[in-house]
Amino acid sequence: MKKTIVKILQFLAFFTVGAFIFWLIYKDQDIEHIKSVLKNDVKYGWVWLSLFLGLLSHISRTLRWGMMIEPVGHKPRFINTFLAVMVGYLMNMAFPRMGEVSRCGVLARYEKISFTKLIGTVVAERLIDVLSLLILLGIVIVSQFGKMLNFIDANPEIKGKLMAVIGSPVLIIVVVVVVILFIVFRKAFKHTVIFRKIMEIVSNFKEGFISIRNMENKGWFFFHSAFIWGMYYLMLYVIFFAFEFTSDLNPIAGLTTFVLASFGMVAPVQGGIGAWHFMAKEALSLYGVANENGIIFAFVAHTSMTVMIILIGIISLLILPFINRRNDVVELHNVRT
Which residue in 30, 66, 129, 184 is deepest, having the highest Cβ count within 10 Å? Predict the structure, then answer.
């Protein structure tokens, strides 16, 4: 009961933050003008293409995750893996960072794979994703250095947070204290039950990490890693052609918008609501897109992605038990006999 209450409060807190940011962005906008643009000026064929590209990225992520699971001794069915991925995206809409745990739980349930081993593969996968995003950020910084400086200067709160993290004495002290305590008490700690449990978990994590090293088709793994992020980028960039005010912007403007908006998804709010909109419209402003137009663009791009994830995620939750009903019946029969 207590855990349920905590989760509800956590959901409400995250949602409130996101909704508040969203309200701040849209509170002074002309709603009738936005409705008119959405009804008459948006070329929705590009939005549908965006959703198709997004679906391709989800399929590619499914295939890549399956490749990472094989070296730990399992070959999950594609359909279960895909549905688990989509359930994970859905869960992130409710509780930020819950998606990784949820999809591992779903696959562990229906494919009988160790949960901690799956977590290890997801952690490794996320590290690859972070590296990919940092590479794209590096490209943006090098090619758009002046505009990035303008973005930081135009948002002093972001600049202040970056400087605070880099030069935080508290962070430095905590790191030093943890290192000292580990050195002093490491021998005694090795004989505790907690240490053995931690090492067991670490061992399972390690199996997930080495899945990349041990996989047979590394070329396909790197292809999918590049393809996933290429589709993410194109998913956003093609929506530029849905509006007159962004249709003339070049691909690097799309990349800048994509990278900055991606950091909005990192914010601890459901689906990046509010934070994603803010980062996207600020990025577009670097290329002369008016604030009210950037807001409309962000609304269409984010809403279309979110609706797709919610619909496919709910469908995935509903059909998972039916797809696996036969396996559950066979398992129950084996237990009884």
Answer: 66
